[in-house]
Amino acid sequence: MLDWLAWGSALGALAVVVRWWLRRVDQLGRRRAFPWISMVLLGAMTVGASAPGMLRSREERRLDRAASALVGIPVSVHCQALGSAALDDGTELGFVRYGADGRLEHQTLIKRDQCQALAAYMRSAKRDPTPAEVGAVHVLAHESMHMRNIADEALAECAAVQRDAELARLLGAPPAAARLVAVRYWRSSYPFMPAAYRSVGCRRGGRLDEHRPDPPW
Question: By residue range, what is the domain housing residue 80?
Answer without folding.
Answer: 55-197
